[in-house]
Amino acid sequence: MTEAGVEKIIAVIDPSHEELFRGATKALSVKSVAGGATRSQSVRAGLAAVGAADAVLIHDAARPGLTVGVISSLLAALEAGADGAAPALPIADSLRRADVGGDVVAEVERDGLWAVQTPQAFRLDAIGAAYAKAGDATFSDDIAVARAAGIKVRLVPGEARLMKLTYPGDLAILEALMGARTTCVGSGYDAHRFGAGDYVTLCGVRITHEKGLLGHSDADAGWHALVDAILGALGDGDIGAHFPPSDARWKGADSETFLRHAAKLAADAGARIVHVDLTLVCERPKIGPHREQMRARTAEVLGLPLARVSVKATTTERMGFTGREEGLAAMATATLERPC
Question: Residue 224: helix, strand or coil by DSSP?
Fold first, then answer.
């Protein structure tokens, strides 16, 4: 962010998170210092590590949507004569005060009210003196410290993407605001020959049948196709590359192992499996009586709501190897949301 006038970044962290911090910032020039038990103590530690500087921006890591534009606006306010500046958004919603039971007890006039964000920018000597004057007192933010010392703070336009991550659903909202994720779709196909046996396994469900399916593992064509679909959306090869049929470890293996592996690869890549769709192609066994169980098993393994798992079946009207009941085939599509 040096193009916005920022020359040094100091992260105030919990000392027990040092290893995580190093891993996350190994490609960046960021210094870390140990924080305190309160926000005010942590800010004091950060200010002490700044050294010589004209201005300092104090930012909450829980607001990752910071832009160069906001930084430039804050620095411009300081250059224009302000001792402090902060981004803020006007309150758009009606405000009410409620009692502990949730009943409305008063209206709050919203004119002149602003939702203040971070970073909050100050002349270093001014905010340093303000914190020194505050002693061990605890404040909600740096504006409160500054105002207690008589420093005027100017508000500049904030941005919606500077929202604070507080509740579980906030991350999805922020990702949408930042355009930080993209949708990827992968497809998969698998086929297995019928052979001796008295059951087949499809989508994790054992179905009694007059024949079995031949394969190095359990020959679950449905889940094999789905694994390839997930790997395709990740751009990470195919099932054979991850579980080679030449490897004796996978002989007779339960395909749930393969599907969980693909799901973990997606999670490790920061991706979310949004929806999966499978089509089984065979004359027999009949899929209809087992469809809901197949959906439920697939949803269970992938951690998806049932509504996001589709299992369908079709025939080829007695044409081809599936029509002659020499084997069956499966096709799958997986939709993933992943970081850009």
Answer: helix
Name residues whose C-beta falls within 8 Å of residue 124's C-beta, 6 or more positions apart in sequence: 47, 50, 53, 54, 55, 56
Q: Phi then psi for 287, rounded to 5 degrees?
A: -85, -30
Structure tokens at 300: 């269970």
Domains and CATH numbers, the chain: 2-166 (3.90.550.10), 181-339 (3.30.1330.50)
As beta bridge partners, residue 338 has 182
pLDDT tens-digit map of 284-314: 999 999 999 999 999 999 999 999 999 999 9
| Residue 174 neighbours by CB under 8 Å, 6+ apart | 64, 65, 161, 163, 165, 180
Show the CA angle centred on residue 69, arms to residues 63 and 70, nearest 5°.
45
Residues 6+ apart with CB under 8 A from 127: 47, 56, 58, 84, 142, 145, 146, 151
Whether the model pTM is above 0.85: no
Classify the C-alpha dihedral 38-39-44-48 as positive or negative.
positive
Nearest residue to 87 (alpha-carbon basis) of 39, 143, 35, 126:
143
* C-alpha distance across the termini of the chain, in Å: 20
In angstroms, the CA 108 to CA 277 distance is 50
